[in-house]
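Go through this chain.

——
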Amino acid sequence: MNPPPDTAVAPPGSKAGFWVTLLAALGCFVIFLVVLFLAYIPQRRMAPEVDLAKIPPEEQWKYTPAGRQAHLDEMRAREKAAATTYAWIDKDKGVVQLPIDRAVVLTLQELNAGRKP
């Protein structure tokens, strides 16, 4: 159904249609920025200062950037060792820790052995 001739509709490909679309896109962006400002920015707060003398020594790493970085480095070293070395998990039950690449090879061999040709 065609619109009545007295309706002000810009023909497709006209400059007026381009400017209306551009203005609508910019308006949406401005509305997004206003919502972001009103909802998020006032909620941001600075971390309170902490007196490390009142914190137990085993918890102090949480409150300094250097402590968090050292804790992260230790955790990554433990994870890397667990992913790349052999170890006994439970000797009585025969549970071992394998490097990931070796575990993948063994799993693929086990799956392929169960296939029917």
